[in-house]
Design a protein that fits this description.
4-stranded mixed beta sheet, about 280 residues, mainly beta, 4 helices
């Protein structure tokens, strides 16, 4: 009791003495009673951080998207009003730079009401969306009006008071480009393949890929699932490092998947390889 009373008198002195640091866990109720709004009875705010990543796309050198706004909604009905703006990047981002650990932070510690949220929406600009092809030419990337109003990503997760949700968006650029060939130059249209994940509910697979002469670098490695009808879905992809190592993260827990590669490195082509089923 004596320690608590002394610490309470020191509360307005911002707790600068070492004794408080040692007793911080014990004296938490005293700290809250001295902080602004601590006695209001209001629940602690929640927060969210959102990070954008991509995988390799061998057919293109750049996939540039004009990111305008990131929004979140508590309802699963996309037509309802009530979208909450998390950030407004208003800049062009090359998706193909967001590999091998490089990320684009779209929101960092943005406060919002605690509760369950059902979807994210990424709004693109009308201009500034381009592709740099394998031959070095830069061409327009057409974005349909429905995509400019928001690329919607279903994702059900709960943000509890006093915590920060860590959400990651995987924009699969390699499978998001539709090529239309006609009488003139090819036209390229964005058909987004994009998923959002609550990172706390994901897992990862890592390993090393080797060929007859040792580790293979620069090989595209994918995590794939196969449904009951034999349809294949690519969950994540990456390229191997100089020593043949790879790591595939943001994989949904409880999913049976296969690690697959059919590497073409320089002029050398290797036979396709696949792991056994992994859970």
């Amino acid at each position: 009791v004596t320690i608590l009373e002394k610490s309470k008198r020191r509360c307005m002195d911002q707790f600068r003495r070492p004794l408080f640091l040692l007793l911080a866990g014990i004296l938490l109720p005293v700290i809250l009673s001295c902080s602004g709004g601590g006695g209001s009875g209001q629940p602690a705010a929640a927060a969210i951080s959102v990070t954008l990543v991509d995988g390799p796309a061998p057919d293109y050198q750049e996939i540039n998207l004009n990111l305008q706004k990131l929004e979140i909604h508590a309802s699963g009905n996309a037509g309802e009003s009530g979208w909450i703006t998390l950030s407004e990047p208003r800049k062009v981002v090359d998706l193909l730079k967001l590999t091998q650990g490089i990320v684009e932070t779209l929101a960092s510690g943005k406060t919002l009401d605690p509760g369950r949220y059902q979807q994210l929406r990424l709004v693109l600009g009308e201009t500034g969306n381009t592709l740099k092809l394998g031959n070095g030419n830069t061409v327009p990337l057409e974005v349909p009006s429905a995509q400019r109003t928001g690329i919607k990503m279903p994702l059900s997760f709960e943000v509890k008071p006093g915590t920060t949700a860590d959400i990651w968006i995987d924009f699969d650029g390699a499978h998001s480009i539709q090529v239309k060939a006609g009488g003139g130059p090819n036209r390229y249209t964005l058909r987004p393949v994009v998923r959002a994940y609550d990172k706390v509910a994901t897992g990862s697979v890592s390993g090393t890929f080797t060929g007859p002469s040792g580790p293979l670098s620069g090989a595209v490695v994918m995590a794939q699932t196969v449904d009951g009808n034999g349809n294949v879905s690519v969950l994540r992809s990456t390229t191997t490092t100089a020593n043949g190592a790879y790591a595939l993260g943001l994989l949904p827990l409880g999913t049976t998947l296969y690690v697959v590669t059919q590497p073409v490195i320089g002029t050398a082509s290797y036979a396709p390889q696949a792991s056994s089923a992994l859970v």
